[in-house]
From TrEMBL:
Coiled-coil segments on the chain, per record: none
SUPFAM superfamilies: lambda repressor-like DNA-binding domains, RmlC-like cupins
GO molecular function, one term: DNA-binding transcription factor activity
Keyword terms, alphabetized: DNA-binding, Transcription, Transcription regulation
Gene3D superfamilies in alphabetical order: Jelly Rolls, lambda repressor-like DNA-binding domains
Full protein name: Transcriptional regulator, XRE family with cupin sensor
Classification of source organism: Bacteria, Pseudomonadati, Pseudomonadota, Alphaproteobacteria, Hyphomicrobiales
GO cellular-component term (any): cytosol
Transcription as UniProt keyword: yes
Domain HTH cro/C1-type, first and last residues per copy: 27-81
Keyword Transcription annotated: yes
Matches recorded under SMART domains: HTH_XRE
Amino acid sequence: MGVEGKERQRDLESGAQVLSGNMGKTIQRLRKAYNLSLSELAEQSGVAKSIISQIERNETNPTLATIWRLSQALDVSIEGVLASADEEPFIEKSSKADTPILVSDDGKMRLAIIGWIKTVEWLQWYDVQSEPGGVLDSDSHQRGSVECLSVLEGEFEVEVGGVTQQAKAGESLRYRCDRPHSVRCIGNTPGRATMVCILKAAVMD
């Protein structure tokens, strides 16, 4: 691993620690707000009492499946669980120049990485822009991963495991991406979409 790779790994680890720390505080605050004991939350969520205790004490980094189960039991969105427990407002801005761009092999499709570095290991999202006929071929992601393509302009087609489905502006396609898959911009006009990839998705756990 090169110097840049090591620095990126440190950033990911640091981000995970901060995220986990805030999450532990938030879960504890929500649990107490609902007047739930550790045992009661464990029973309602299906997450072991010892794991919940470790999360609240910032002693472990939970999987997305665990976060999802706790969010369901606490009747809050995953975003709510991951939100900072601090009362300080939080706004972070990234400039256009700081936004990494991925380009498909045919050079016709561009994916701007607009996701947050702290969630990149389990949640990624992109702004997709494509010329007519652009194709993005992707290898399998982690087992259980799910991708969502929400079309904003034009028309796209997704193929997974020999199954093909199309979507126009205002429509979305959700599909397992833990196998080879392709996204194509079909028709005669440029296309634009938002793509979100949930790695090791709780819904497929």
